[in-house]
Amino acid sequence: xxxxxxxxxxxxxxxxxxxxxxxxxxxxxxxxxxxxxxxxxxxxxxxxxxxxxxxxxxxxxxxxxxxxxxxxxxxxxxxxxxxxxxxxxxxxxxxxxxxxxxxxxxxxxxxxxxxxxxxxxxxxxxxxxxxxxxxxxxxxxxxxxxxxxxxxxxxxxxxxxxxxxxxxxxxxxxxxxxxxxxxxxxxxxxxxxxxxxxxxxxxxxxxxxxxxxxxxxxxxxxxxxxxxxxxxxxxxxxxxxxxxxxxxxxxxxxxxxxxxxxxxxxxxxxxxxxxxx
Length: 277
Known about the structure:
Elements: H1 6-12, H2 30-75, H3 77-80, H4 97-106, H5 128-141, H6 150-153, H7 159-169, H8 171-174, E1 181-182, E2 188-189, H9 197-206, H10 221-236, H11 250-276
Antiparallel strand pairs: 1-2
Helix pairs in contact: 2-5, 4-5, 4-9, 7-10, 9-10
GO cellular component, one term: plasma membrane
Enzyme class: translocase
Binding site for heme c 1: 76, 79-80
């Protein structure tokens, strides 16, 4: 048997694979380093943005307070005192909160035009920006009721429950239909038709004039939202039973019967008597 030559054996034998050169590999900690760099960059940018926004907010708040202080000194301090302590001409404003100031000023009740049984609504004397500055200034002096959230004023509560709460807590002065009514000593409960919802809420939490204060122990925020929903329902749904006679109940209805009912009977009696003669 012939043994192949070395050259033949070398040609037929399988060729051993050549080892590839290793290229540059990433370090095992490279991914961790990239994540750390990303977190630091993101955190730094967020901190810078937040601090800038906070600084802008603080500066804006301080500017409002400063402007409000000037407006207060020029228009309110004569009666309420430079330190909000009150005088013989006006009550203290310490603790009344932003809601009370916004209600009184944005309805024109303040500044008071003249002394009387109660402050009446009149044209507003300040712009929205000035009103914001005033209530921000007073609110910065001591805590008190703040402005309501938009959800409370949205009018999407329970109108039926709001009507029940209104009848129990408000109707004895404002009438069940919100038409208002007379009180003692020349005072009155104003009509609530067409009144802005924010003013209704602010009146409930601050108790202006002769109105009692309804805090969250008396009426929760949800209860107040339901009452506001009921009043919005009254605004959107006029009387479907004919003439409402001012929604004053037996007062206007009795007057109508006396004048037109009995008047008609007297007129018919006179006519019949004259005809028989």
